Amino acid sequence: MDFKNLVPKVQIESLVDQWIQEDIPNFDYGGFVVGDKIETAVLLCKSEGVIAGVPFFQGIYDKLGCQVSWKVEEGTHLKPIAQVAHVEGPVNKILMGERISLNCICRASGIATRARHLHDMAQSAKWHGEIAGTRKTTPGFRTVEKYSLLVGGISTHRFNLSSMVMLKDNHIWSIGSIEAAVKKARLACGFSTKIEVECRSLEEGLQASQAGADIVMFDNFQPNALNAAAATLKSNYPHVLIEASGGITVESIQSYFNPNVDVISMSSTIQGCPVVDFSLKILKEGRDPSNPLVQS
Q: Active-site residue 136, yes or no?
């Protein structure tokens, strides 16, 4: 699936402006040294993974007036060492965008790689539901991270506080009851926005469903407890979606692939993901862009 048109150009431009301002708040000393002669750099993938973050890498060099020629499609599983793209333009501009573009594509590809692994696990198990990320993202980098989940083949979950109502324990404790929280939320969000309620017991799940929740999240349930609660809730409220969340890992997720569970959300889809290693090197005769280790 090609997601390159999903993020509006104006949004990418806004992010790129922030990243450049953060990295070059005043003088570009290295750019002064190399000048603006035209050079070509090669983008190399140096560890195995799924490439993601192409629109953001492209947006950085569009802003800097450089041309990017892609050799692979986003979402491709790469093995090292692979030539991914060439970047041509004034050398000071290539190097100005080097670190921020690599930050994007390394991080995005790491997330997409984990997402693809989870997607493949669900497919192998013939599980019908969706694996999703969470709102536990890096400040200022959420768009890139959520986008990368999609490239890898899993769901983003809600993007922010405005995209879906999620009533968690603090909301319930503050207003006093699940019923009161759901009714007040529905007054504001109407028919067009789903309401999800975080529940710590089957009883709370039944209360949420009766109050009109669209989704019940069973939080921090062990697999056996989840399976029992999900079966009972589905038999009483078959239209309600059931989400499992809390403490689920790549190693344990297979235990949660249950026919009565519709969504499994995991913070580890983003938090703690290892990156995929990329480098960007100016092409020069007699120089090895793969930058091999120095041997003794």
A: yes
